[in-house]
Amino acid sequence: MSVQVRDISVRFGRRQVLDALTLPEMHAGEVTVLAGPNAAGKSTLLRAIAQLLPHQGQVALDGQDLRQMPATERARLVGFMPQSLPSGSSLIALETVIAALRAGKTLPAHQADAAAMAVMEKLGIASLALEPLDALSGGQRQMVALAQAIVRDPSLLLLDEPTSALDLARQVRLLSELRRLAAEGRVVAAVLHDLALAAQWADRIVLIHAGRVHAHGRPQDVLTPALLAEIYGVEARIERCSRGRLMVLIDGERQLAR
Ligand SMILES: Nc1ncnc2c1ncn2[C@@H]1O[C@H](COP(=O)(O)OP(=O)(O)OP(=O)(O)O)[C@@H](O)[C@H]1O
């Protein structure tokens, strides 16, 4: 499977947030990380790809335009994990995962319960199943959001800062899960701010700046001091640790020439 994202433009009022943005084609088996400064347009792009906000341009799965698909078919094919789950829910965590499952599939109640529980077990959060969603910690809610995003077994998985509230062990658990989901034949795209995590887990990094793709490629090609200075305005060093992994070291903000 491949995903084509072409010429995406989004405007909020008079503000052009995305300007004919085209991503490199994404393929099954690959994890693509979208990175870039605050307000660059990363969340807006993910939401446009998931067809959650009005936009111009095209998103296609194997050439099939997502916009033209019936909503249930799209819900089955695309999983979206938001930056945070809305609060004010009166449901327990398991019910929210069941509701996410039923948005894309009609299933008898006992099968839906079992499928939702199986995903929570796989993610190590079975003990949270009967807790009210609103009573969970930020990291626990983020793991439940992941369960909601993957429970329909989507072909395209979109995640908005999925590790932002997670402790170190759960970051590794989530990112290993993303790699496994990709290896099983899915397309995975995640917004991440942590470039060290991106370097370790991504096949490809797309740097987004001011609503456009500034650079894209393998982590070793994109994580360069020059590009990080251009995009983030920082003095960065990229070094390899003893295991050969890329380390991104930020020495400070870049001093502008007078
Ligand atoms: N619903 C909205 N109405 C008006 N403006 C919006 C809306 N959503 C986003 N924006 C604006 O669009 C721009 C891009 O926002 P977006 O959330 O996509 O950035 P981001 O790259 O994900 O940022 P961050 O790293 O801070 O999460 C920002 O200037 C933001 O204020």
Automatic annotation (TrEMBL):
SMART domains on file: AAA
GO molecular function: ATP binding; ATP hydrolysis activity
CDD domains: ABC_Iron-Siderophores_B12_Hemin
Pfam family, any one: ABC_tran
Domain (ABC transporter) ranges: 3-235
Record key words, sorted: ATP-binding, Nucleotide-binding
PROSITE patterns, per the entry: ABC_TRANSPORTER_1, ABC_TRANSPORTER_2
Protein name (database record): Iron complex transport system ATP-binding protein
